[in-house]
Design goal:
heterodimer; A: alpha+beta; Ubiquitin-like (UB roll); 2 domains; 5-stranded mixed β-sheet; 5 strands; 34% helix; B: alpha+beta; Aldehyde Oxidoreductase, domain 3; 3 domains; 7-stranded mixed β-sheet; 6-stranded mixed β-sheet
């Protein structure tokens, strides 16, 4: 007998109401029930971070949350970053800095960095984030293709441009 | 103007950055059922029973299958036969019957309406196995008296490659240096686990299989043969893949099971591997021990080289057969002048996950062993490490150099290059970047710092062929259908630049489709750093043929001779009559003029503006390079931190330098993993100790420093029209060698480091022992 719950949540600003089994992970619910397949599963035990999404603005491993725990939440996934064909500044920086190869881990890094860059302590603080600080952030997730250099550079470049634009 | 050589943004990026890539698990078919594998929990034993009764009664279960339900006598064939060695006694069955030989070996598969139910039901399959002793040490397993995994014994192959009088070289040597180097078991571990979706046409039984990457045409043909159906009943569409690195896309048991189940049930079947499965199911690699010795004359010139290698292949010979150890022995002499050489390898079966290739197969292992030998030898000979290498590298006047050996079925002809010049450039670049100064500064402050160096020879562009189709549609868009696959390397961008260059169009109008077996039925796949070299050359040839055809049609439209047409300066791919820019046609107009009812076609002439071309190549092309590393060892914990890293690499010609640099940097990160962190360890019962990312430790951004890259284009490959050499593996080949060299330097060892990975425990042991005790002075 399945334990089904009716929940409501917003994903990238769009309202969803669905019935979900209590044990279904947030990642599976987003991917298979709601069609947000940009959230990727690389390990399903919270290490690789490919499934990182924002839950009420804070980065979370979608493989370590149940879908029902997102009831009433605002979720942001990679699909919400671009404006149609127009890449966000962070996405564009990833392309410019060659911060992705296979692209499987990329959504997780983008969401991780998006939360970091949205923090006033980063884009509003007196000092620019250092390479070491960004590297520590990037060390939260795994990438097997790039050697991380392009990812670190893309986050730094976006932090710089957002600061010079007066934060965001 | 040419698109070749430009740092263009990647074609792949916009879809991947928006989360709009299409990876295996992103495909869904109406009515699909989910497969879950039941794997052996025992390393070695006799199967008493595999009982699916309870599983079949579970909620949502559609079917449960064991070896008894499969067609009889199926085994996965070897894709690459080398050195005429028959491995048919050691092939992996689809599902184990009778005997299990490693933890993770597939025993049964359960199908259910959703993946959670399938996973629950798989735990209800009752497996009864009578445990037998696990065979875990390859050297011991090769000895008489070891428990046997096979009636034919544990040694699948024992062969020797070489040339010259090695005995005389060692007998007459001024000095002989010998060390032991062991490489730990690790592998590619792409971030996306494997996935397969087999959709089936219930009427015809035709299959569409999503998720077969790397060698889709080969896998399609193997599957067709195992199923006993015509290969055109199987379509493998192009999908994105989350990294390949050699392991993804080989033909594994699941590659038969999932399509076979779909045909049997006449329902789509989906299988998504989880990470714990991946770490015990997908090809392992690298584990090898090397006893390597060199004979030197009084000037420090190598007169002979010999190696005894034991390769721990795991439980079965999979699709790669024995090419990893074969490549090790064939490539061991590397870029050096070696007058006499003998390398012997024993390929030994053990109770572990079977092995296959991992990026730079055989070269990571062999380069580590050889370069470490040269470091130890330099000290014993009283020579500088760089000077010893400089003396022994083949000079530009000695190339091309035919090594009297074969590898991967090809003769070894080391093509264009200037190895000493690149060594000098790398040393100069490391100096310019302050590597030696950083070591000196650290040492002055009392830190354990070391500088490491390793030179290497790579190989790339394995044939025998690749085929490409290029076609222009009525909008002027160019479509390239190539036989490679997109594994993240950026091959769509590269092939787009090659096609754009040949056609004189903007790369933005070129669409590249890789690895669709209907759109390119003759593809050879993406592996062995061959996609740009062999695949790119085929695209170049097809695009050039389209260009000739376009000129012919343009001449008919413009009522001029083809020879009187000029190519406009702006990138559009059109033509105009020389001296009359107004008399012009665009590439789109030319394509439209080849429509079936066009007045410009001759009677019987085929419609369309397209060409298929095949590029054949008998020999590989050999890129080369030098790695340098600065490391610091924590004297308390033994932790090694890589502070600086340089790759100098000769690529012949860089189609897109940004992507070449990306390949090299990514390779270094994986090399650091293999040199310092990653290892598949087992306990004495053969239970894997690295089955999660907590235990299988891949490098994060905290372990990988910024990587300096020096890409040179001084020695174009003579064997292909583009002059390109492969770039996929040069970042990883010498990483073990360079890091071992740097750690040895930091610790001031007299001998070698003995073994990779240099985990903190290993480094602490080296600090207390003062070096590998296996070194023999003479």
């Amino acid at each position: 007998m399945k334990d089904i719950h009716l929940i409501r949540l917003r994903v990238n600003g769009r309202e969803h109401e669905l019935a979900v089994e209590s044990r279904r992970t947030l990642a599976d619910m987003l991917r298979h029930d709601l069609g947000y397949t940009g959230t990727h599963l690389g390990c399903e035990h919270g290490i690789c971070g490919a499934c990182t999404v924002l839950v009420d603005g804070r980065p979370a491993r979608a493989c370590l949350m149940f879908g029902v725990q997102a009831d009433g939440s605002e979720i942001s996934t990679v699909e919400g970053l671009a404006d149609g064909e127009q890449l966000s500044d962070l996405q564009q920086a990833f392309s410019d800095q060659h911060g992705l190869q296979c692209g499987f881990c990329t959504p997780g890094f983008l969401m991780l960095a998006e939360a970091y860059l949205a923090d006033d302590d980063v884009t509003g603080a007196a000092d620019e984030p250092t390479e070491a600080q960004v590297r520590e952030l990037v060390a939260s997730n795994l990438c097997r293709c790039t050697g991380y250099q392009g990812i670190v550079e893309a986050v730094l470049a976006t932090a710089r441009s957002r600061r010079s634009a007066g934060g965001r | 103007m040419t698109a070749i050589g430009a740092r263009l943004p990647r074609k792949e990026d916009p879809r991947l950055l928006r989360g709009l890539g299409r990876f295996g698990d992103d495909f869904t078919a109406r009515g699909q059922v989910w497969a879950r594998m039941v794997r052996s929990p025992i390393a070695h034993g006799r199967i008493r029973s595999v009982d699916t009764t309870r599983a079949r009664r579970a909620d949502g279960v559609v079917a449960a299958v064991t070896a008894a339900d499969l067609p009889g006598g199926l085994a996965i064939p070897v894709r690459l036969h080398v050195q005429n060695i028959d491995l048919s006694d050691y092939l992996q069955p689809i599902l184990a019957a009778g005997v299990v030989r490693y933890v993770g070996e597939p025993l049964a598969v359960v199908l259910a309406e959703d993946p959670y139910a399938a996973e629950d039901a798989a735990e209800l399959v009752d497996v009864d196995i009578e445990e037998e002793p696990a065979v875990l040490d390859a050297a011991a397993a090769a000895s008489p008296g070891s428990p046997a995994l096979y009636a034919a014994g544990n040694v699948a192959a024992d062969f020797t490659l070489g040339y010259g009088d090695v005995e005389a070289a060692f007998a007459g040597a001024a000095r002989v240096v010998q060390i032991d180097v062991e490489i730990g078991r690790h592998s590619g571990v792409p971030l996306e686990p494997r996935t397969l979706l087999a959709d089936v046409d219930p009427g015809t039984g035709a299959l569409s299989i999503f998720g077969m990457t790397k060698v889709p045409v080969f896998n399609r043909d193997v599957l067709a043969a195992l199923l006993g159906i015509d290969e055109t009943l199987i379509h493998v569409p192009a999908v994105d893949a989350g990294g390949g690195f050699g392991v993804r896309g080989e033909f594994y048991p699941e590659d038969f099971l999932v399509p076979w189940l779909a045909r049997t049930l006449r329902r789509p079947v989906k299988w998504v591997e989880d990470r714990a499965e991946h770490l015990v199911a997908v090809n392992h690699s690298r584990q090898q021990s090397h006893r390597i010795a060199a004979a030197f004359d009084a000037e420090g010139l190598i007169t002979g080289l010999r190696a005894e290698i034991v390769h721990d292949n795991g439980a079965y010979c999979r699709t790669h057969g024995i090419i990893v150890p074969e490549l090790t022995v064939a490539m061991l002499p590397g870029p050096y002048r070696i007058p006499a050489y003998r390398g012997r390898v024993q390929v030994v079966l053990t109770s572990k996950t079977p092995c296959g290739t991992y990026r730079a197969p055989g070269r990571f292992e062999g380069t580590t062993a050889r370069e470490h030998l040269l470091d130890v030898a330099a000290d014993q000979l009283g020579l500088d490490r760089v000077e010893l290498r400089r003396r022994n590298l083949l000079g530009p006047g000695e190339l091309p150099c035919q090594r009297p050996m074969s590898t991967l079925g090809t003769e070894m002809v080391l093509d264009a290059g200037d190895y000493p010049a690149l060594l000098a450039a790398a040393v100069a670049e490391a100096g310019r970047l302050g590597y030696p100064a950083e070591v000196a500064r650290g040492r002055k402050a009392g830190r354990l710092r070391g500088l490491g160096l390793a030179a290497f020879l790579e190989k790339s562009g394995l044939g025998p062929q690749e085929t490409a189709d290029v076609t222009v549609s009525g909008t002027g868009a160019v479509h390239v259908f190539s036989g490679g696959t997109s594994l993240g390397q950026g091959i769509e961008t590269v092939l787009g630049q090659i096609a754009a260059d040949a056609l004189g169009v903007d790369p933005a109008v070129v669409r590249v489709v890789n690895g669709d077996t209907d759109l390119q039925p003759f593809g050879g796949g993406s592996w062995a750093s061959r996609s740009t070299v062999v695949g790119g050359s085929a695209v170049h040839a097809a695009a050039c043929a389209v260009r000739v055809r376009a000129r012919q049609i343009a001449a008919r439209i413009l009522e001029a001779s083809p020879d009187d047409l000029a190519e406009p300066d702006s990138a559009g791919g059109g033509f105009h009559v020389r001296g009359d820019p107004a008399a012009a046609v665009t590439l789109a107009e030319i394509a439209q003029a080849t429509a079936p009812t066009s007045q410009y076609l001759r009677p019987g002439e085929p419609a369309g503006l397209s060409a298929r071309r095949r590029f054949d190549v008998a020999h590989m092309t050999y890129p080369y390079g030098v790695h340098a590393a600065v490391v610091e060892v924590d004297p308390g914990t033994g932790r090694v931190q890589v502070l600086r890293y340089l790759v100098a690499y000769e690529v012949g010609r860089a189609i897109n330098p940004m992507l070449v640099e990306g390949q090299l940097r990514g390779g270094v990160a994986q090399g650091i993993g293999g040199a310092l962190l990653e290892e598949f360890c087992y306990d004495e019962a053969g239970q894997p100790l690295a089955a999660t990312f907590m235990d299988y430790r891949m490098p994060t951004a905290a372990e990988v420093p910024p990587i300096d890259v020096l890409v040179t284009q001084q020695a174009p490959a003579p064997g292909n029209p583009l002059g390109v050499k492969g770039a996929g593996e040069g970042g990883v080949s010498a990483a073990g060698g360079a890091i071992a060299s740097a750690v040895r330097d930091a610790l001031g060892l007299a001998g070698g480091v003995g073994r990779l990975p240099l985990t903190p425990a290993r480094v602490r042991a080296l600090m207390s022992a003062g070096g590998n005790t296996c070194d023999l002075p003479q």
